[in-house]
Amino acid sequence: MINQLDLEGTPREIGEKHGREGKEQIQVSLESYEKLFYGFHQISWKEARDRALDHLKAIEDYDNELIEEMEGVAKGAGVDFEDILTLNSRSEIALTGRKDRMFSDGCTSIAVSAPSSSETIIGQNWDWRGSQIASLLLLRIKQKGKPDITMVTEGGIIGKIGCNSAGIAVCLNALITDKKSNHVPIHLGLRAVLNSDSLHEALSKVDGGQMASAANFLIASHEGEGRALAANVEVSPFGIDVMAEPNGVVVHSNHILSSKLPERLTDLNEFKNVDSLIRKLRAEQLVHTALANGEMINENSFKKWFTDTFNYPNSINHFRNPNVPEHRRNETVFSIIMNLSKKRILFCTGNPVLDGYQEVE
């Protein structure tokens, strides 16, 4: 089972415990990204650190407590602050380089709410390098004046995929585009969403071009008694596009869906039609087939969808394909299902199987 850390206190105290008790996972992350940055883009770790520092002023202006927490992680792990900042800027650093050498984590995200389901459920398969399984941490964070957070992340990264006690949950779909800025890295934007008490607060944290690069944040908000909404929020350095469906079914993979964002950005996903698009269409087919059959959508529905192997190995349950270029050899590293109505989280490490999910205590 994934290593779980219970973190509480000031941002610096939260960070120090993350660094101290997650030191092994942080080292895996540091070694993995040093190799990946150089292997794909010939970027040295020193150059990567310099690029991460370009975001420092924007982060300080955005939320200085994020700086304090990263400083705490560095102190606890016995590494430099710049190393932790680089991990939290890894998507922005990975964005640069030749189009045919771009690398990105992939994933398939699904959320359902009324009227398609009486419960609000959101989840995803996160696809990346299989070696990063060894970097995974489950963080349970208690912060003064903010919601409690349950989050799955890579060691050293303080924002990723999870939910909070205010009924907000977020999943991440990477997007590869041609532009970035020196604004706030998207992983810190994810943390800001999870620090939020409401959907409008979460959206305010990513709107207005505050994010340094493009990504999709699938955000669900559950306030109880039928008050719920899930939406794809494609963020970018030029603003956001919020997309929801009247039937309450929201799906995303790894290409831009917005009609607005391409006015300023170019989608560089070279395998959109043979991978990302098929996963999105298949996920929608699975959800709507269940609805057409009159099935009650629940956690078991998500398990079936996330273990689906149609179009193997580039399936929703993604497997490593040795016949494609190195930068595309991703696989499902973890699967997470968050039932916001029941305040229940199910998690599976590696390629998911129906009986492989465990409830997060």
In short:
With 361 residues, this protein is of the alpha+beta class. Helix content is 32%, strand content 24%. Pfam families: AAT (PF03417).
What does this structure look like?
By secondary structure, the chain is of the alpha+beta class. It has two domains: about 5-100; about 105-360, Penicillin V Acylase, Chain A (4-Layer Sandwich). The protein is about 30% helix and about 25% strand. The chain is built from eleven helices and 14 strands. It has helices spanning about 10-20, 25-40, 45-55, 55-60, 65-75, 80-90, 90-95, 185-195, 200-205, 270-290, 300-305; strands spanning about 5-10, 105-110, 120-130, 135-140, 150-155, 160-165, 170-175, 215-225, 225-235, 240-245, 250, 330-340, 345-350, 360. It has an eight-stranded mixed β-sheet. The longest helix has 21 residues, at about 270-290. About 55% of the residues are buried.
Q: Flag low-confidence runs.
A: none
**Widest β-sheet, arrangement of strands:** 1-4-5-6-7-8-9-10
CATH class category label of the largest domain? Alpha Beta
Structure class: alpha+beta
* H/E element sequence: EHHHHHHHEEEEEEHHEEEEHHEEE
The appropriate CATH architecture of the largest domain is: 4-Layer Sandwich
How many distinct helices?
Answer: 11
The number of domains is 2
Mean pLDDT: 94
Q: Span between N and C termini?
A: 12 Å
- The CATH topology of the largest domain, please? Penicillin V Acylase, Chain A
- Say which CATH homologous superfamily of the largest domain is assigned: Penicillin V Acylase, Chain A
Radius of gyration: 19 Å
